Predict the structure.
Amino acid sequence: MIILVTSGSKGGTGKSTIALGLSAIFSLRGFRHELFDYSCSLGVCTGIVYYLDEYVNDINRLSRLVRVRQGLPSQDYDGLAIVDLPPMNLTQPEFVDLLGRADALVVVSSYEPDSVVSMERVLEAYSGSRIVKVCNRVSMEGCRHYLKVTPESPFFIVGEPTNFRTFLRLTDDLGFTGEDRFERVSREFRADGVKAKLVYRWDPYAIIGVEASLKWYYALMPYTKPIEELVTIAKNLLGPSYLNRLGFADNALNKLFRVVRH
């Protein structure tokens, strides 16, 4: 089965985040699958391989459920594939061919008008019936699934509790229901000078929390490194650009990062 994650010709809508979230729930429910990043075939990896980066080899080496690939599934592919597509339009024959091969379509849209138009054109061109629409950042008419704003990292977007529940429902709509197989850990500790917690873990992911300015931020991370290293990575992903958008003044922002560092 091939599941395409696309927003047509519009970039920056969160396709790779959706691909990561689907992988998290598929593995949570015990479904073996592969994550394909088609952008790599075009010269530069800008999708899920780019975001997973150094985790790719670790996942492929350690996980029993997930493989991360570059390119596309073969014509005779008979497994379960999530394909993260770069911006593509209907004038590209390969995109039309992919729409014809897909067993399910996950269409991602943001609030920009060109994103909405792009989504509508893709839906008109797809002849299949298994379609799931996802809205990123703002809820819109016709979108059953909506992701709220979080720190600008797929790891934090997927790990945020409300968004995680959205991915559970999204996976249900695709027909992949089943028992959630995870280990509840709920262990708090300090690492790299910050308060952290390991909440859940399963092959090959974990949800970890990092406290900043008395607020907990949750991230879904590939659990292929020591937990202390994951906490450091998560802490560094909480950058000033996101916190500034939340309305922190400069002095408050400086105070916040003194808290995070110490």
